[in-house]
Amino acid sequence: MARTRKTAPLPRLAPRRPAGVPEFDVDEMLATEKIIVCCGSGGVGKTTTAAALALRAAEQGRRVVVLTIDPARRLAQAMGIGELDNTPRPVAGVDTAAGGGLDAMMLDMKRTFDEIVLAHASPERAEQLLSNPFYQALSSSFAGTQEYMAMEKLGQLDATGEWDLIVVDTPPTRSALDFLDAPARLGAFLDGRLLKVLLAPAKAGGRMYVKVVGAGFMMFARIITKVLGAQLLADVSQFVAAFETMFGGFRARAEETYRLLGAPGTSFVVVAAPEAGALREASYFVDRLDADGMPLAGVVVNRVHPMAAALDRLTVERSLAAAESLREHSEHPLAEAVLRVHAERARLAARERRLRERFTRAHPDTALVEVEALAGDVHDLAGLREIGAALAGDYPSAAAS
Amino acid sequence: MVTGKGGTGKTTVAGALAVALATGGHRVLLTEVEGRQQIAQLFEAGPLPYAERKIASAPGGGEVFGLAIDADEALLEYLEMFYNLRRAGKALGRIGAIDFATTVAPGVRDVLLTGKVKEAVNRPDGAREAGRAYDAVVLDAPPTGRIARFLNTSAEVAGLAKVGPIRAQADSVMAVLRSAACAVHFVTVLEEMPVQETLDGIAEVAAADLPVGGVVVNMTRAPVLGARDAARAARRALDLEELAAGVKEAGLAPTPEMVEMLVLETAGHARRVALEAEQRERLAGAGAPVYELPLIADGVDVGGVYQLAELLRASRMVG
Fold this sequence. Notes:
The complex is a heterodimer. Chain A is of the alpha/beta class.
């Protein structure tokens, strides 16, 4: 339900390009890449950025699908993905004149996991697995499952060859590491020695068990039983037995997806906001992607409060002093209020600039683009279009400064 | 328990709440569970080990201790405490059992983290008048979207462990969390998404029978424009001549572009204030007490934490 705007939208102000920072050529990325992964901490506008990039690429003629994790309700409605069916659906209202199109989907991690099981296990095995309590808990609440399933879904979408470009929003992971580590972690777990221990009782009787895993492990199994409880252990053991046939496939797919992420045609976009915490996370992401050899296209800093060049002379101090002098003479209350509003904004702008400069000094080779803060949230395609234009540095000339 | 959407200042408010609770000679433990060392950063201290360490003093002889709870360490500690198995626990680590228990086994991690909080809450200390080691424990909890699940430990392990030590531990943690001694506070800013998540979070926490505390509206700004000017400003219909005359009177030579840009800034401000008013109204309907904290324009440093702590006391959220 889109609210009608009582007033015309304000013209957007182009943030000034920071000197010495490589330009993030967003349109070039949108025209050439096959996969774009947006990552960053929670609350920085990651989902909106992913959707805006996808829409812009689609309207420039590419066939695009955007995979979102947890979009705000109204954004989801605007894109027609209020329904959770784990399948990409065409987004209505996209300008397809250039020959492109946009599909969108919201990830249902449990369903994605179920689909893998159904596709790769025999019917009885699948049945066993889907009803196993440990599987049910793992597939719906394990902290790494969402990350892993996002990557799995990406692999699936890529394999269809239906789209020129896949834009992926990543889960707001509790730690930046989770998302890149999830495939490896789940893979390591499923292949690990621990599982061989857990698996043994399901495979053989007690005597055989000792033979297979060695007496030393017996103690460990006893401790695990003691701490986690026998029922849990039995469930896990049954789960592992049923899952065993899929191990190889799981691991291979995890590795395949990881390779896909590092391959030419994939770009990572780190999304941040001009706040100390968000930029610290962004820094961490940039370093981590670099360490893993993952291709970083650039950093998007959302929610910036740019300052118009015409107001450069009005520093915080000057504006406040001017407002004070007006107050003393109790004339021109309007100008006084406007100058106070400006002083507050100038102070915020200066702080954001300091934070951004600290970031770019630490990452001098990382391309960066800033996007102005909006008064409200984005919940329609027009809003996404506007953000997409801002990301690409595409401003109507009147508002540029 | 202090939760909030990312970017709302949850950790800062948790820190301020700890200082406020410690004010007047109390001893408070401030904990975090997400391995980000945000408490140490907030109080400009070195990274916290898995040990309680004094990180701040509060007015009137109060003390704030910090602890970064780590699930692996908490499990080893648990094994030692209840089974005297610390060395065996280390050996378990080598075959990946600790990693399994703390990251893969669903819910177990959260039980370990909240279990450590419970242990700190109940820890006896005969040397203190209160008989307990801490007068209050503040947890910088996971974000709003995950809070109900994080705290609802019993439900989380229910399908998994019907009996056994994990289940028993989950249930005893739950009893503390559901008691009158506990409150789950929500930190938000006056924007649509954080407010929506706060309302959803409150409903989920209440549905899990956990005690909803207050809503802390963070980073608020005092209104600068009167109602009539605000409405005109939002429409960019301010009296340009009057504005230019005022700016000139203040000793600043206004150019037409300067005035135009000031009008644009003021319009943005007025529209944001109007949106904030809408969000404030939505929060008022949440059925929880609402406390407001002002924006600290230059960003929060340690001094800012103390300033916010005083405001929390003044707002009667604490004290």
